[in-house]
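Message: Study each token:
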Amino acid sequence: MAEDEHLGMPRGVPICAIGASAGGVKALQEFFRHVADDLGLAYVVIIHLSPDQPSSHGEILASVTRMAVHQVADSSELTPDCVYVIAPDRELVVQGSRVMARPFTDPRGQRAPIDMFFRSVAAVHGNGLAVILSGAGSDGALGIRDMKEAGAVVFVQDPADAEFSMMPHSAIASGAADFVAPIPRLVERIVEVVHSKDAVRSLSQEVAHHYLQRIVTFLRARTGHDFSSYKRATVMRGVARRMQVTRSAGLQEYAAYLSDNPEEAQELFGDLLISVTSFFRDPGAYDVLAQEGLGRLFDQADEGGIRAWVAGCATGEEAYSLAILLLEEAQRRQVTLPIQIFATDLDEGALATARDARYPSSIEADVDPERLTRFFVREGAHYRIRKEVRDIVLFASHSVVKDPPFLRLDLISCRNLLIYMERQLQREVCALFAHGLKPDGLLFLGSADPPVSRPAARSASTRATASAVSARRTCRSVTPWRSRTSSPTEAMKSLVR
């Protein structure tokens, strides 16, 4: 969707995505009794339904609000001040300016329709509002993290106020919740956030640039990290989100709040970091890595084994995904060799989650049952990574921009991080990767990352030696990800050739 570049906010109808499960009907009725009918939001309600029974949720909600209520059986145009309700035996996704119903893509027992919809909102509409109400299970706990990364503000019903508290508890445990309160207070906060978004949209480019410079300078002084080489829209998106959370009326007020509240610098710093990921993100790319890329690493491995670096590892899912693939390949070949994965990030909270290796049961949507059985242990409503996987991953705080790279690496995974950087910083980071990779090492980028050319890598690198030529060639091979291929799978094939 088109975006106001200097504001980092998408154009179009803002979406309020609402997830609920058991006990959710009463919570939804209370929510729509309190919410005004003129906030300009499109409300999309995802609730767990029996696939075999008709649903009357549309009629129930229509009785407590003056907004039009539509059950989405096929496709509906998103319109302000309208409510859209999921239909039985369907999942909803956003495509452009429409909300679409489609058959479930996952088998029964592994479905997470709230996560699915929230992720689609994050991918297509950027920032918005996410609301988790009463429910059983952990559906939504992963999706709200994606929405938060995209700039959304996350609201969770107070578990003490919910008829069923497991879903709110899981959302809170994810670390993505911005406001936790009973429903009447949540609605008050939603109104404030909507007004704050309107204030951001009304800013001129000159005013936004002035205050962003002040904020970035202040953030560098407080945290030691410089975001001046990150794309302005990325920084503005994080600042706008913190404006809404801190209930600041404008950029000037937020700059003053940042100056007066030392702890806010760390909150903003955390929002600007990319701490959202999932297991086997872009599954097709992982499939090709497993089928065509890892074999090369094992064929070339010496007594030192295989060394890999996952840069920007966030909460650890992608590092563990890579570890699982390497262990599977070692078992397939019936070989034993050292495997070491360095997984790094700047977000200490995300690293703590990664080290704990405990994830909500909704990861069932991303991890197939065979891998869940082999590499995870069920702990109530969560899964924990088994020790054999944890033992080969070392998590550490590290800046890919400021700190030296790890060396003698067979593989670097840096997925969907470069996209947030300005072009010159992208070149510098790629040059560091070239320096750290062995000849013929692999660079695994994300489908959203920009193409990286060989000349760009060469011109940016003043330290790369002749032994890094093959690594630079790997950087060049990523170019087709955006320019000549249309899918992560095809892009990954170009990487490992």
Remarks:
- The chain has three domains: 3-185, 203-272, 283-496.
